[in-house]
Amino acid sequence: MKTFLVLGxxxxxxxxxxxxxxxxxAKQWKVIVVDKNEQHFYQPGFLFIPFGxxxxxxxxxxxxxxxxxxxxxxVAEVEQLEPAENRVxxxxxxxxxxxxxxxxxxxxxxxxxxxxxKDGGWRQNIFDFYTYEGAAALAPAISNFNGGRFVVNxxxxxxxxxxxxxxxxxxADAYFTRKGIRxxxxxxxxxxxxxxxxxPVASATLxxxxxxxxxxxxxxxxxxMVDSSRNxxxxxxEREIPYDLMVSIPLNKGASFLGxxxxxxxxxxxxxxxxxxxxxxYENIWALGDAANIPASKAGAVIxxxxxxxxxxxxxxxxxxxxxxxxDGHALCYIETGFEKATLIDFDYTHEPLRxxxxxxxxxxxxxxxxxxxNHWGKLAFRYIYYLMMHGIEVPLPSDFSMAGKKP
Length: 408
Ligand SMILES: Cc1cc2nc3c(=O)[nH]c(=O)nc-3n(C[C@H](O)[C@H](O)[C@H](O)COP(=O)(O)OP(=O)(O)OC[C@H]3O[C@@H](n4cnc5c(N)ncnc54)[C@H](O)[C@@H]3O)c2cc1C
Description:
The chain folds into 3 domains: 2-107 and 254-318, 3-Layer(bba) Sandwich (FAD/NAD(P)-binding domain); 111-251, FAD/NAD(P)-binding domain (3-Layer(bba) Sandwich), CATH 3.50.50.60; 331-390, no CATH class. Helices cover 25% and strands 26% of the residues. It has 8 helices and 24 strands. The chain has a 5-stranded parallel beta sheet with strand order 5-2-1-9-20, with helices on one face. Strands 11-18-12-13-14 form a 5-stranded parallel beta sheet. A 3-stranded antiparallel beta sheet has the order 6-7-8. Helix 1 (11-23) runs parallel beside helix 7 (300-318). Flavin-adenine dinucleotide binds at residues 8-13, 34-37, 43-44, 46-47, 77-78, 104-106, 129-130, 160-161, 164, 255, 257, 289-291, 298-301, 303, 333.
């Protein structure tokens, strides 16, 4: 009996395990998925928790409810991976030998890596919204906030969903406006980037929205430490930003066992070929989703686009054929801009976000780089589509980026 092992039962792991269990002969293969958690988090929904728009039930579901029939689901932390031995050891002592391995352990926040970030102010007047616990703890702090300096800081890139901090700021602006206290709140976005976002056209569009909403951008700010006794965030170049309430997006890193196994980079992201998603070190290992060190956005939509490519490549590899499916880095992100509007960006490894319509060229209904209510409904609909996909319903959106209907 051969083993197809998937580490991580999140967005990517659940989908890959199901796809494999559907096509592999159950007399010859067992498919196993391992996760340290029993709960699955719909992470895009964390954005809405601090403002009271989503509740726990909207974003937290049992992993078991998504695991396909025929897949063995093991609840345990992965402690060690020995890729040269094709072996994984779990924290409960179980050893799993595999023939093929897919790493889908995602990325997580590490506030402890920034001096002072987890000292006195953590979950008092410093919060995150990249975990369910952080987003839930932030909700009362936002609702009790009556004015002062509201600082949102990205400690270091890459982070998952790189537009989420901007969306959070836009929603905060709308929330404080509706509460009638916007004129008492200074909103400051401290980012290591030179502007609002990485891609020039999108950065200019998003920068204009920030300007219109009177949000101050502290650019090229590399956070070095937090002094919670003075409520000050300081950069390595010794700029200081005082805060009354701070929302931090701490350093994001992959699972530590990947670095220890020698297949991860300095942030524990698995080194893979950016098109085939196969490990550059071991030919029976693939990495998907946030766990991979590809230069694409770490986002659920990206997983949807890369899944089919990786799946077909693995099957070709199993059959001893050359791999012919190339992931182009396609990413599609709805960006909430507040007051029931959103914008949308569509790009890949080589094309930056451009104006146009999506998914039907010229027709839409979604407006690329425009700010519309329909885009906002697209963002909200994403949750239902996501859960359908997690239950194995295929969504017929083409994986590859297309220039059709785009205006360069
Ligand atoms: C605030 C926020 C907003 C976002 N908004 C969007 C959006 O609008 N659109 C979008 O497309 N994407 C968005 N994303 C990103 C999206 O949620 C992630 O990219 C996606 O869920 C990653 O899926 P994954 O399978 O790679 O990892 P995950 O879904 O995070 O799964 C990783 C799994 O691995 C498990 N694991 C980790 N380490 C171990 C270990 N050692 N042993 C065992 N198990 C382990 C974890 O428990 C987890 O279940 C957002 C993310 C956040 C945080």
